[in-house]
Design a protein that fits this description.
Radius of gyration: 22 Å
Structural class: mainly beta
Shape: globular
Strand content: over 45%
Distance between the termini: 53 Å
Oligomer: single chain
Helix content: 10-25%
Order of helices and strands: EEEEEEHH
Number of helices: 2
């Protein structure tokens, strides 16, 4: 089975009692539908994921990253501290495909545009070399 969603928080690597490492993360899967004669309804499903093969992947599973996962889904349930039954979805991940990083909120994009970036020109000019605009070709 394959699922695609966005990582909701940076992944964490945990070590089991038997010294095995597992990368744990949660993804959000967004969907929508439009009932007849009504406004569109948005649905977000949260899925807890575990990946046992390479704990180094955790550094790439950061908040907002779009991922496609292959593996198997498992449903679970528990009773919370208020005595209510809570259902969970767990995905035992076999493979991970990184599809891209979130562009962020509009405010974050504006902040990135406004912030000066240290580029190649600034570094070259600091050493006295001409910048790209001064070259004849």
């Amino acid at each position: 089975m394959e699922i695609t969603g966005r990582v909701v928080a940076n992944a964490a690597v945990r070590t089991t009692k038997t010294d095995k490492k597992v990368t744990a993360f949660t993804i959000a899967i967004n969907d929508s539908y439009k009932p007849k004669d009504k406004d569109r309804v948005q649905i977000t499903t949260y899925v807890d994921c575990s990946y046992w093969r390479n704990p180094g992947i955790a550094e790439y599973l950061t908040k907002g990253t779009l991922v496609q996962l292959s593996g198997r889904m498992q449903a679970g349930a528990y009773i919370n501290k208020d005595g209510e039954a809570v259902g969970t979805l767990n995905f035992n991940t076999e493979s991970i495909k990184l599809l891209g990083k979130s562009a962020g909120t509009p405010a974050e994009r504006e902040t990135e545009k406004a912030a000066p970036k240290a580029g190649k020109k600034q570094t070259a000019n600091a050493g006295g070399a001409p910048d790209d605009d001064d070259l004849p070709f």
